[in-house]
Design a protein that fits this description.
- With 108 residues, the chain is α+β, with helices and mostly antiparallel strands.
- It has three helices and five strands, in the order H-E-E-E-E-E-H-H.
- The chain has a five-stranded antiparallel β-sheet with strand order 1-2-3-4-5.
- Strand 1 and strand 2 form a beta hairpin.
Length: 108
């Protein structure tokens, strides 16, 4: 299986995709948001190949953390990742502080 390189730099991303990157959404005050909106989904880029997507599925809002791959200039999701319901997302957010504490303990 081909190893994917992390291409998180914007300049490198533009070289790869010929500047076809979706523009960030702007709020009412003209401030650029850190997400894009495409095909009824909101996307946050963690890296070029790792994204968070917020979408609707069968009437339910879902949050997906997933790896993507490039196929003919289009970014498509892989099976590698997880999708959370809103209930699971709320539960996950409750643990963020403790997760950060554990990370900091392991850094030492």
């Amino acid at each position: 299986m081909k190893q994917m390189r992390d291409r998180s730099s914007s300049e490198e991303y533009d070289k790869i995709f010929d500047g076809k990157k979706q523009s960030p959404v702007q709020d009412k005050k003209g401030k650029k948001q850190s997400y894009t909106f495409e095909d009824g989904q909101y996307f946050f880029d963690l890296t070029t190949y790792k994204k968070i997507a917020i979408s609707k599925f069968k009437g339910n809002t879902m949050i997906s953390l997933r790896e993507y791959f490039d196929k003919d200039g289009q970014m498509l999701p892989t099976k590698k990742g997880i999708t959370l319901s809103l209930d699971n997302w709320e539960k996950f957010k409750q643990y963020i502080g403790e997760i950060d504490e554990c990370i900091n303990k392991l850094k030492k």
